[in-house]
Design a protein that fits this description.
2 copies of one chain form a homodimer. Chain A is of the alpha/beta class and 343 residues long. Chain A is 48% helix and 15% strand. The first copy, chain A, is built from 15 helices and 11 strands. Chain A has helices at residues 15-27, 39-47, 52-58, 77-83, 88-97, 110-121, 156-172, 195-205, 218-222, 233-259, 262-270, 272-281, 284-287, 308-323, 326-333; strands at 2-6, 32-37, 62-66, 103-106, 131-136, 143-146, 180-184, 211-216, 228-230, 290-293, 298-301. The first copy, chain A, has an 11-stranded mixed β-sheet with strand order 3-2-1-4-11-10-5-6-9-7-8, sandwiched between helices. In chain A, helix 1 (15-27) links the parallel strand 1 and strand 2 (32-37). Chain A is globular, with a radius of gyration of 21 Å. The two termini of chain A are 35 Å apart.
Chain lengths: 343, 343
């Protein structure tokens, strides 16, 4: 399979992008990678890869497509995509659109990634809106949140599609058999929540090609009540950022608390491994990037602050999406959904 | 001032309600309390108060209003209020409606409290919807979330009213001068968020009787970017429950992690005070109850699992709302709001 990597996206591009890509080629013999970025700069960066012997063994599977323009996170996504025809996004996604590659990975602008995927790669027929899926940084049983922020003001039928796509992803990529899909709500009863949630619940209860386990409160979702949490993108994004905020606040408080006393300092030393393990389980590097589900290709958004390992993980994830046939499955299942009148 | 306490609300009623009420009378000489509940049961419970000498000194300020019926959290609030004319809610709130008391405190059904406050006590003129305000269990700089779940599908102008009421409460009860009011959103720019958030932002930017500090993401709110976080009640409730969920998850993981090794167990022992302090700062008992803002009285919802201390704190809070003249201030300020066309 062929995966296009935006070599210029993220805070530490192109070095970590190139390193992560070569690392992935070394790990996965079935993967070819196309780096999208300024040709000369990328050649130079490849020349600086730490293990040139190892690189020599995989170089046949690495190519560069010249894309001298970069779209920054500050630019208006749609305008930038229109103006910058030679950007990594436009050039890279065109390759996926032409079916010459199956996946696109970027740590750059989320807006440009979503707009580009919509307009360049294209939606899967029948999908109203592609959605961003994110693994919530919850250790133990993983929890997939869809939509994590791609769409605000969602129609109930869109959320049903998010649920279906999330269910397929959880099965094929996360390895969860018969994933339980919950609807994010503020109570468990059918009549709970806002109008959107109530109508979505009604649709979810109809025969659907996924296992609906009812309304789930945020608290219970984190306690493992479901595998996939379907939500409006606005509410989903609030949930995601709040989770990150609370975790960071608690680690900060714990550190301050322990460092404030001699006993605490000793405790911190003794508990070092536990803290490290905990921190690692919340590390977005290992959690991987966020797949954009519902477009005609495997599209992965890696964190803006990705290091080489995070880029590697995002590429591995793209490979799993392709391997699992996620795009084809979504295409097949969309027609089986029971959705509302408004579509 | 006179405060009505629902003696039958909460998991440990009436004992903790009676204990908390007498404790409050002992602490605050300017408070009179009316206990609403079944007369005989309450007399018996008062007779079992641990310090009868102390009780004797405050008994002149304690009275009982017979309310033999109880509305459970499982009942439909509006139906129950209609059917159970002798319930603690109906009897107790009638006293506030007649202006014979200034406040109502309950650890019972949130739905019945809100519906009762709306229909029995009544909205402040000009207020579209009363809102539940909750102190987020964030230590250090406190954060007031309004609305925490009383209203779903909010109009933008309602959220502006929540902001104003939250600002007054933060000033008069929490003691924060010139509280900074943020709008919960998924980005900081004016154009971010769903339609509701964008329209609310437009209104908030007009001259308002509170200090609007712009859109605030959940992450930044917890990091202390604002004092009051105005939100739609659906989104606010998701935020609240998610915060509780993440905190509980992290404490659980930490405990499991430490208890898994001998070193960890020693660390846990040494860090006991730090953990205790942390846990206490998240304890809803000390955080207090949730005021329902926008009705013609001080109405406080205490946690369902309140102990005597939590009931005491909720009564103290009601006293502060009355002392601070919060209801009068809201009545005065509502006309000064710049709101949208739809009202």
């Amino acid at each position: 399979m062929k995966i296009v990597v935006d070599a210029m996206g993220g805070d530490f591009a192109p070095k970590v992008n190139v390193d992560g890509a070569i690392d992935a080629l070394r790990e996965f013999a079935d993967v070819e990678i196309v780096l999208a970025g300024p040709q000369a700069l990328l050649e130079e960066t490849i020349g600086a890869y730490a293990d040139q012997d190892a690189y020599a063994k995989v170089k046949d599977r690495l190519s560069i497509v010249d894309a001298p323009e970069v779209i920054s996170t500050e630019e208006h996504p749609v305008m930038a995509l229109r103006r910058k025809k030679n950007s990594t996004f436009v050039v890279g996604m065109d390759i996926v659109r032409r079916k010459e590659a199956q996946a696109f990975v970027s740590a750059g602008s989320t807006g440009a990634l979503m707009a580009g995927a919509m307009f360049k790669i294209g939606r899967i027929k029948g999908i109203a809106r592609p959605a961003l899926a994110t693994m919530l940084p919850v250790p133990g049983r993983p929890l997939l949140l869809v939509d994590a922020g791609a769409n605000t003001d969602c129609k109930p039928s869109w959320i049903v599609q998010f649920a279906m796509m999330g269910s397929i992803y959880a099965d094929k990529v996360m390895g969860i058999k018969n994933p339980q899909v919950g609807l994010l709500n503020i109570g468990v009863e059918a009549a709970k929540g806002n109008e959107q949630a109530q109508k979505t619940y009604e649709l979810m209860e109809k025969p659907q090609p996924f296992a609906f386990c009812g309304n789930v409160e945020a608290r219970d979702a984190l306690a493992g009540k479901c595998d996939v949490l379907a939500a409006d993108g606005f509410v989903g994004n609030v949930l995601l950022k709040n989770t990150e905020g609370v975790i960071s606040m608690l680690f900060g408080l714990l550190k301050d608390g322990l460092m404030g006393s001699a006993k605490g300092k000793v405790a911190a030393l003794l508990a070092k491994d536990t803290f490290k393990g905990l921190k690692k389980s919340f590390d977005s590097t290992e959690v991987g990037g966020a797949p954009l589900l519902g477009v005609e290709g495997a599209v992965i958004k890696a964190h803006g602050n990705s290091n080489a390992r995070a880029i590697f993980c995002a590429i591995r994830q793209a490979r799993q999406v392709v391997d699992g046939g996620v795009v084809d499955l979504i295409r097949e299942e969309v027609s089986r959904l029971s959705v509302g009148e408004e579509e």
